[in-house]
Specification:
Rossmann fold, single chain, 10 strands
């Protein structure tokens, strides 16, 4: 983070902008922001908690420049009422996240991580995988990442199924030969399910116990959207009973709790640290775009 900021310090100084750094892992919480936000005309944030309470104290704030795509951690309605501009980089990580999801699927179906670990521990065990040809793949969320995944997966000759909350999006992909199914049907019918939706009020805990109980040890669930889209408690309870495979880049509580890790570490799983976005080309683009968004917001 310091290296990136140092790269842009000259640009900030040229525009007579003074910089403070408040960096927390994974994010700056509401109670800390409330104490300091009154000082600032603009901010660059990640998933920091820009709630109504925080922005009520933001007497000078003109712009929030979000590093990344999702703005679910920002109360955008209240920001609009206060005249605070919000910018992000929509679609910036589409290809990187879609490729990550595809990599997870290939890893789990061909047991690449298990084979790697076996060899590194001095064994030469053979792990039998499966081909994904003719498997039924369900994609939940058919816009940027979902549509990119469809492009990639077509070359594998899978049976593509989908679901989106927008009827116009469903209709578009139905015309392209994608089977449009309800959530319940996707979980009961598909072998591999990939969650790609944005996080908002309608998608919070979208995936519940009733869906997860339709899975079994032959099925794979991949989440590259946001953690709270899947009810974490239901995930932990059902995976113990149903023993399905997961490839999760995101979790409801990040970093994951010891309880979550204890349950998931012994399952057939690929776990990642909210890192699916992280490719050099896309990250560099977002650095530049986020800085330009900040400058634009301060000038207007």
């Amino acid at each position: 983070m310091n290296l990136v900021l140092n790269k842009y310090l000259r640009l900030l100084k040229k525009n007579k902008i003074k910089v403070d750094k408040i960096i927390r892992n994974p994010s700056v919480k509401e109670n800390e922001l409330i104490k300091v936000i009154h000082q600032y005309d603009g901010v660059i944030c990640s998933d920091d908690e820009f709630t109504k309470k925080v922005m009520h104290k933001a007497k000078k704030l003109k712009v929030i420049s979000k590093w990344g795509t999702g703005i679910d951690s920002i109360d955008s309605n209240f920001a609009k009422r206060k005249g605070i501009k919000i910018y992000n980089s929509p679609g910036a990580f589409t290809k990187g996240v879609a490729q990550f999801a595809l990599g997870v699927i290939l890893n789990l179906t061909r047991k690449i991580s298990e084979n790697n670990q076996s060899v590194k521990t001095g064994n030469w065990k053979k792990f039998q995988g499966i081909n994904i040809e003719n498997k039924k793949v369900g994609i939940i969320g058919l816009e940027k990442i979902g549509s990119q995944l469809i492009k990639y997966l077509k070359s594998f000759n899978v049976i593509l199924c989908g679901n989106d909350k927008k009827k116009i999006v469903n209709d578009k992909f139905k015309k392209k030969g994608i089977k449009i199914l309800s959530l319940n049907k996707i979980f009961s019918y598909c072998d591999i399910i990939i969650i790609c939706v944005d996080l908002n009020k309608s998608s919070y805990h979208l995936i519940k116990k009733e869906h997860l109980m339709k899975l079994n040890k032959e099925k794979i669930l991949v989440n590259v959207s946001r953690g709270p889209v899947v009810d974490n408690d239901s995930l932990l309870k059902t995976i113990k009973k149903r023993n399905f495979q997961i490839g999760f880049d995101v979790f409801e509580h990040e970093p994951i709790t010891k309880k979550t890790l204890k349950i998931l570490r012994n399952k057939s799983s690929i776990l990642s640290s909210h890192n699916a976005f992280n490719t050099k080309k896309e990250v560099n683009f977002v650095h530049e775009n986020t800085m330009q968004n900040l400058l634009k917001g301060l000038k207007n």
